């Protein structure tokens, strides 16, 4: 006898779509003993007050919680970078709606202590302990603060919780929302962190946040899925995307190693549909191979590419520096615009700088790129 766990990636049901997944996929979700997703944003309420942050503010329909319940989900991870986009009121209202629908939530809460709590579920004689974490984005409780939010993957309490949880359960599952978006490999810092957490007692890492699939690996008999991609995401930015991605069905046994099946899906006519391996735009075999073949070189190249393409410009904007790619006439216009709009731009510049310093993925990538440029003269 085994216990089955269905795990998928990011969910935002902005349009209140009750048929957000097809019937075949719904049957798979419902037939598993436990089903979990990443609930990527708070639900809409009467008055929404966005927090001060860089980047988009995201919310989803109030009905989205009930629709997930009806689809067969049991647990929602709320450790992610958008769950606190509208502050305490929206977070608490979301938690109430989750509780109203008799769903578990994990990774966030109304205070620091609740955000770092684990959950133990026992079925078929097997105990599984769950933790959910995210990198240090806006809303993260990276220290004890007088507000709600979500747990930070690098806080020492996570390491302590993993070790304590391992003494109480048969398996530990970590739901991790972290990584650089839209790239096909996890950067080395995340790979190292996930492996370290496995050394401490985690048996399975379920990763999401990059919005696209990344590979998976077996590490010392532990499983690490670096990114499952989007499960259902219908905000304006993603509404027309097919979001080719995958989910996993994990099979936990008392006496042997964890088995798993890969479930492929994509969005067709505003519905996440079960599809075959050949019908998605990615190859997991290829993505897995990238974790072995010249991984370190590829990781360095990606860091440099991202720095040159994105981060250098971010820091120019955040520090109000004259962009080096402008011609002399546009530099003069930039100079006068800066003087005229200095006060109203200062706050957004500070937020952009904070955004790029505090978020672990951004900091890791920039640090690696600058180290390669400064210390070795490395060029992509």
Topology readout:
Layout: E1 3-12, H1 23-31, E2 34-39, H2 63-71, E3 75-77, H3 87-100, E4 104-106, E5 108-109, H4 112-115, E6 119-123, E7 126-134, E8 140-141, E9 149-151, H5 156-166, E10 171-177, H6 188-200, E11 204-208, E12 216-219, E13 222-225, E14 230-233, E15 245-252, E16 259-267, E17 272-274, H7 284-289, H8 295-318, H9 328-340, H10 342-358, H11 360-376
Helix pairs in contact: 8-10, 8-11
CATH topology of the largest domain: Purple Acid Phosphatase, chain A, domain 2
Low-confidence stretches: 331-336, 339-343
Global shape: globular
User: In the CATH hierarchy, what is the class of the largest domain?
Assistant: Alpha Beta
Give keywords.
alpha/beta; 380 residues; eight-stranded mixed sheet; six-stranded mixed sheet; globular; 11 helices; single chain; 17 strands; Purple Acid Phosphatase, chain A, domain 2; 2 domains; 36% helix
Descriptive notes:
This protein has 380 residues and is α/β, with parallel strands linked by helices. It folds into two domains: 287 residues, Metallo-dependent phosphatases (Purple Acid Phosphatase, chain A, domain 2), CATH 3.60.21.10; 82 residues, no CATH class. 36% of the residues lie in helices and 23% in strands. It has eleven helices and 17 strands. Strands 1, 2, 3, 4, 14, 15, 16 and 17 form an eight-stranded mixed β-sheet that branches. Strands 6-7-10-11-13-12 form a six-stranded mixed β-sheet. A hairpin with a 4-residue loop joins strand 16 and strand 17. Helix 8 runs antiparallel to helix 10 and helix 8 packs across helix 11. About 3% of the residues have low confidence.
